[in-house]
C-alpha cells in the first residue's frame, strides 16, 4: 500500500500549479471588481442623494421665504378679512402658485431618499398640493358667489393651511440639514427632537 500513497502537493506538475494560480488570480479579480462596482454604486447613490437633498432644500426654503412667518401670515389674513367684513362684495385675489417643480422632476428617483427625509418631504408636498387645489377653487366664480361669511371662513382655512405649510417646510429643512451634517443617525435624532411639525416653527 505504501507504493500507492497519494502524491504531495509539492509533487504536482508545474502546469497544474500554473492553472491553480491562474484560477486564484481570476477569482481575486472577480472579487476586486465586484467590490469596486459596489463602491462605485454606493458613491453614485450618495452623490444623487446629496443632489436631491440640495435641490429640495433650496425649493422648500424659497417657498418658505415667501411665507415669511406665522405672524406675517396672520397679519395679512386679518387685513384681508377686515376688508371682507366691511365690504360684502370684496373677493380677495388668490394667486396661482407652483412650488413643486423640483419635487415633480425627482419623482422617478424619489426612492433614493432615506425614510427619515422622504416621509416629511412627501407630507410637505402633499400639503402644498392641497393648498393649490383650494386656491384653484377660490379663484372660481363659485367662491365669489358664496355668502360673505362663507368666503371669510374659507379664506381663514386657506391661510391656516399656509401656516401649517410653514411648519411642515421647516421640519423638512431641519431634518435634511441634519442628514447633510450628521448622516442618518443625526437626521433621525433631529426628527425625534422636533417630534412634530409644530415644534419646527423657528425654522432651521
Question: How would you summarize this macromolecular structure in one to three sentences?
Answer:
With 204 residues, the chain is mainly α.
Question: Which key features would you list for this structure?
Answer:
disordered C terminus
How do the helices and strands line up, and which of them pair or pack?
Layout (H helix, E strand, L loop, with lengths): L13 H54 L2 H17 L14 H5 L9 H24 L2 H4 L3 H47 L10
Helix pairs in contact: 1-6, 2-6, 4-6
End-to-end separation: 84 Å
Shape from CA axes? elongated
Q: What profile does the largest beta sheet have?
A: none
Q: Give the helix tally.
A: 6
Mean pLDDT: 84
Query: Which radius of gyration do the C-alpha atoms yield?
Result: 30 Å
Which class do the helix and strand fractions yield?
Answer: mainly alpha
Uncertain segments of ≥5 residues (pLDDT<50)?
A: 200-204
Range of strand content: under 5%
Number of strands: 0
Following the backbone from N to C, one meets helices and strands in this order, namely: HHHHHH
In helices, the fraction of residues equals over 70%
Fold and architecture overview:
- This protein has 204 residues and is mostly helical.
- The protein has six helices and no strands.
- The longest helix is centred in the N-terminal third of the chain and has 54 residues, at 14-67.
- It has helices spanning 14-67, 70-86, 101-105, 115-138, 141-144, 148-194.
- It is elongated and about 105 Å long.
- 74% of the residues lie in helices and 0% in strands.
Amino acid at each position: 500500500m505504501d507504493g500507492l500513497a497519494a502524491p504531495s502537493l509539492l509533487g504536482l506538475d508545474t502546469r497544474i500549479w500554473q492553472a491553480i494560480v491562474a484560477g486564484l488570480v481570476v477569482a481575486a479579480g472577480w472579487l476586486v471588481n465586484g467590490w469596486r462596482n459596489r463602491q462605485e454604486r454606493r458613491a453614485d447613490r450618495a452623490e444623487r442623494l446629496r443632489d436631491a437633498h440640495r435641490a429640495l432644500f433650496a425649493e422648500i426654503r424659497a417657498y418658505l421665504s415667501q411665507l415669511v412667518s406665522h405672524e406675517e401670515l396672520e397679519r395679512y389674513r386679518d387685513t384681508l378679512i377686515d376688508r371682507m367684513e366691511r365690504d360684502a362684495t370684496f373677493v380677495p385675489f388668490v394667486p396661482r402658485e407652483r412650488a413643486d417643480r423640483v419635487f415633480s422632476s425627482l419623482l422617478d428617483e424619489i426612492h433614493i431618499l432615506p425614510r427619515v427625509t422622504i416621509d416629511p418631504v412627501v407630507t410637505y408636498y402633499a400639503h402644498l398640493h392641497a393648498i393649490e387645489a383650494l386656491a384653484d377653487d377660490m379663484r372660481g366664480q363659485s367662491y365669489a358667489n358664496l355668502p360673505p361669511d362663507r368666503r371669510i371662513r374659507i379664506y381663514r382655512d386657506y391661510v391656516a393651511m399656509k401656516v401649517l405649510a410653514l411648519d411642515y417646510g421647516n421640519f423638512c429643512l431641519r431634518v435634511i440639514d441634519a442628514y447633510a451634517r450628521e448622516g442618518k443617525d443625526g437626521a433621525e435624532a433631529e426628527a425625534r427632537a422636533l417630534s412634530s411639525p409644530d415644534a419646527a416653527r423657528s425654522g432651521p
